Amino acid sequence: MTYPPIPPPDDPWAVPAPPPLTPAAPANPGPVIVRIGDLGVTSTVVHTPAGDIPLAGSTWMVHDYWHHETKIPTWAILATIFGFCVLTVFSLLFLLVKVTIPRGTVQITVSNGVRQYVSRIPVTDQTQVTALHQQVNYVRSLAAI
After folding, report:
1. Other CB atoms closer than 10 Å to residue 89's CB: what's the count?
2. 21-44, pLDDT tens digit by residue?
């Protein structure tokens, strides 16, 4: 006898077996309209590395995570080293030169029902951030159709 016993098919109190999971035949989603990082958006689905998400009714969120690095440029370090032989004290003034470098990531989250995918895209300029926001706004308008 096996445990749990397999009930006869006409038992009204038996727990019904779950239907077999058969993947639906993938419809031809068409060409990629917009590519945002590792996301590819067609007219009906969003292609992600984790699988496809339906475009209709999807929710898109964008978050910017910026930080600024301050560092001494390479040319200032080299000028200090080479100038140390000629003008000892004055060459150290090159170490006061600082350059601010903006760096960060833009996090794009797409979700539809229980499916969710987060893409993080590194950016180094405000124009890249603006372009990503414009692309996501375009995809939002496609998702609303």
Report:
1. 7
2. 555 545 677 788 999 989 999 988
